Amino acid sequence: MNIEKLIPIPELCSYYEVEMSFFTKLSEMGRLEIIKIESSSYIDLNAIYEIEKMIHIHQDLEVNLEGIDVVLNMLQKLDGLQSELQSLKNRLRLYES
Question: Is the whole-model pTM more than 0.85?
Fold first, then answer.
């Protein structure tokens, strides 16, 4: 793994003003992959959008970690349903023309 594409977790903790345990618990829940190199913990740069989403849900809406998991599951289902709806609309247009 290219270390240039990794963000040290202590930097994220400092920047977003969250505890290390926040990231640890998200990892235990399967919502985040923590990469350990030697004695340091990192997160892939590509995961930053999802991390920011979870942090904002936690801080702005004051949702606990279990609630974050529920919200993200519901958002994933909503995205899937929207994709399915768009697909069905496209198929319907084929039959209408």
Answer: no
